[in-house]
Write a structure and sequence with these properties.
The chain is an alpha+beta fold and about 450 residues long. It has helices spanning about 80-90, 120-130, 185-190, 195-200, 210-215, 225-235, 250-260, 265-310, 320-335, 340-350, 380-390, 440-454, and strands at about 5, 30-35, 40-45, 55-60, 65-70, 100-105, 110-120, 140, 150-155, 170-175, 175-180, 200-205, 220, 365, 370-375, 395-400, 405. The two termini are about 95 Å apart. The model is unreliable at about 15-25 and about 415-454 (pLDDT under 50).
Length: about 450
Amino acid sequence: MSTLVVLLPPRGRLSAAEAPASAPARELVYALSQDGLLVHSSGRCAPSLLPRADTVVAVLADADVAWHRVTVPKAPAGRLRAALGGLLEDGLLDEPEQVHLALAPDADAGSSAWVAVVNRPWLAGELAALERNDRVVDRVVPMSWPDELAQGHFEALDEGATPDSVHLRLVWSDANGVVPMRLQGTLARALLSPEVTQAARFTAAPAVAAQAERWLGLPVSVMSPEERGLQATRSLWNLRQFDLAVRHRGVRALRTAWQRWRTPAWRPVRWGLASLVVLQLVGLNAYAWHQRGEVAQRRAAMADLLKQAHPQVPVVVDAAVQMRRETELLRAAAGRSGEDDLEALLQAAAAAWPPGKGPTDALRFEPGRLTLGVAGWSDAEVQQFASQLAAAGWRLDRSAEQRVTLQRPQPRRLRCEQQVPPVHVLRAAPSGAAAGAGRAPGAMAGALAPARAA
């Protein structure tokens, strides 16, 4: 995951009202790292020309951050900033509204922790200038911070001046805070006793490394400002807190997850998922090809069966429908009844007719449907009639007009060339009607006699 380190230029030491606004045309020093450990490229350019990276970190100069140690107040997160401002009000040089406060990482309420203090208008202007150029700063970190491990860094006061002991500055950080000091005078010598210098770690900018070693009397590690800024990004500090915190948490969470997904640590997972998707696509296509072959074979077998059974069919369009139509035509020509004809429906009704009931007083026939009148039947008799028909594979629907309709649960639609026209409602003669379950077929025949005569 690539990291872009932007070294913000030191703030001009003017009053807040006279502080110049951030100039978008100025050049910024940057360092680009692909792994967060080594500087792969660096330079100086305008904010709009800064390289793209997965994470953008702004680094503040040592003199732009003041440090105060306080006892973290026990206040809600929404009121913690105001509580910290009240504690530091007497120790601040500016008004509390003009400063930005940032609490140390992992600081617990009631414990002692460091608070970083930065000029708020200046820092907000710097971040806004970067965001106007489509460079959203994910973190803001100090170049140095209080730490148990004592460190010292030598740098030049003026970049254009000839480095000597007068123009050198030492940034000293330990558990008591961060102190930038000039090497002129006796303060630095008094602070750096031989015991302290032996236990501390010293670095220096490349241009002043020789002068720093002569002043210190010990070897120092050479570290450029870009390397020092990249080292600062590995700390846990993040000064983008409270009112300067990054907004759009949902979008930021997605972006963070995407950045983590693109890291080298997740590369095996990415390759595994890509391989799985490719295998799924290949497998689905192979299965679809196999299924298409099976369907084609079955369609060919159905077409061959149709041609063998009915050679008179010239063209096979839908073998199943054509086979059913030709079979129905043969059945009708032979004078045999089908399962949707009147005879089959009458036989099913006669077999389930309730004992003691006479013939129906009305009926209506449509292909696959037989409507019977059940005037005078009780609910128990209708339920018994429906249960016996359901056992034989028929369905009985009851209407509000004292009629029931007998049909198959899922009647098959036949596209036959000849259909039986519906028979209108008839009234059967009460005389000569048979009664009882055993005489029900005769009753049906007696009921149909007037219809045939008509």
